[in-house]
TrEMBL record:
It is a peripheral membrane protein. PROSITE patterns: ABC_TRANSPORTER_1 (PS00211), ABC_TRANSPORTER_2 (PS50893). Residues 7-256 form the ABC transporter domain. The lineage of its organism: Bacteria, Bacillati, Bacillota, Clostridia, Eubacteriales. Coiled coil: none annotated. Signal peptide: none annotated. This is Oligopeptide transport ATP-binding protein OppD. It comes from Pelotomaculum propionicicum. The gene is oppD. Keywords: ATP-binding, Cell membrane, Membrane, Nucleotide-binding, Transport.
Length: 327
């Protein structure tokens, strides 16, 4: 397992009129080459902030990376300047967003936009670049690449626009693709097709994928590793099997109980309450106000991460106690 990217103790704040939002409170994880890792959690838990911080696309201000490292190719991306980051973005790391309008320029033809990526990130001789553009359009599953090359984004359907954005992302030959809710705006059938495409690309190109989604079903369908985020922290991480079949954190279990699962007979039970205000996060475990198993210690001290079998890690006092037979 070769490590591709390593995020270490990342802390990010956002300045607001009401105070400082502690959006990421010490996030650490590794991404392995050729794997799909999903980041799941309710909205506002820090999933997108994590992605934007890796890419150094966080609006600063109001955002501010307080501390941490993002190691890619042995170098800390957080120490790179904008010019260096522009080489990396769209080159070795590319991002796909939910909103195609964020990445596709409505005034330029699809082909022109892909050629721009190739001008900036590809070593190919000029004579071969158009061929490469057609190739990535076709890799993204768009029919008639010659035609799509000449079309403007508005001439494409929602699903096709998403594919055009994926084609653009592929043009730079990324080793890491970060997809932030890539299918949320699409209807279910197209959503399934796009996920299948991402899966194929991972298999055929060996690209690693960091998939951000609030939809556990999507994560279960495509990811081999899953990280669960809550209130700016990773509260549980492990293989998809660990998370979906043997969840350790009450929040993960709550998320799973709130979605329909095949063969499930019990009623769905949404997690009560709401995520905490990150300007004044609760002392101790941020989940305690919503946790049915909260103990006294949970209100006082933030739980430590406990390593279970394999790479399964849970950040909860209950697991900690069980693991150390200490209750
Ligand atoms: Fe619940 Fe305590 Fe575990 Fe937090 S640490 S999830 S409050 S049991
Ligand atoms: Mg988001």
């Amino acid at each position: 397992m070769t490590q591709l990217l390593s995020v270490k103790d990342l802390k990010v704040n956002f300045k607001t009129n009401l105070g400082e939002v502690q959006a990421l409170q010490g996030v650490s994880f590794d991404l392995v080459m050729g794997e799909v890792t999903a980041v799941v959690g309710e909205s506002g838990c820090g999933k997108s902030v994590t992605a934007l911080s890796i890419m150094k696309l966080l609006p600063t201000p109001p955002g501010c990376i307080v501390s941490g490292q993002v190691i890619f190719d042995g170098q800390d991306l957080l120490l790179k300047n904008e010019k260096e980051m522009r080489k990396i973005r769209g080159g070795s790391i590319a991002m796909i967003f939910q909103e195609t309008n964020t990445s596709l320029n409505p005034t330029l033809k699809v082909g022109t936009q892909i050629m721009e990526v190739l001008q900036n990130h590809s070593e190919l001789p000029a004579s071969e670049k158009k061929q490469r553009a057609l190739e990535v359009i076709s890799m993204a599953g768009l029919p008639d690449p010659e035609m799509v090359y000449k079309q403007y984004p508005h001439q494409l359907s929602g699903g096709m626009k998403q594919r055009a954005m994926i084609a653009m992302a592929l043009a730079g030959g990324p080793r890491l693709l970060i997809a932030d809710e890539p299918t949320t705006a699409l209807d279910v059938t197209i959503q399934a097709q796009i996920l299948e495409l991402l899966q194929e690309l991972k298999q055929n190109l060996g690209t690693s994928l960091l998939l951000i989604t609030h939809d556990l079903g999507i994560a279960a369908g495509i990811a081999s590793r899953v990280m669960v985020m809550y209130a700016g922290k990773i509260v549980e991480s492990g293989t998809a099997g660990d998370i979906f079949h043997d969840p350790g954190h009450p929040y993960t279990r709550g998320l799973l109980d709130s979605i329909p699962r095949p063969g499930q007979r019990q009623k769905l039970s949404p997690i009560p309450g709401r995520p905490p205000d990150l300007i004044n996060p609760p002392q101790g475990c941020a989940f305690w106000p919503r946790c049915g198993q909260a103990m006294l210690i949970c209100r006082e001290l933030p739980p430590q991460a406990t390593n279970l079998a394999g790479s399964h890690q849970v950040c909860c006092w209950l697991t900690h106690r069980y693991a150390f037979n200490n209750y």
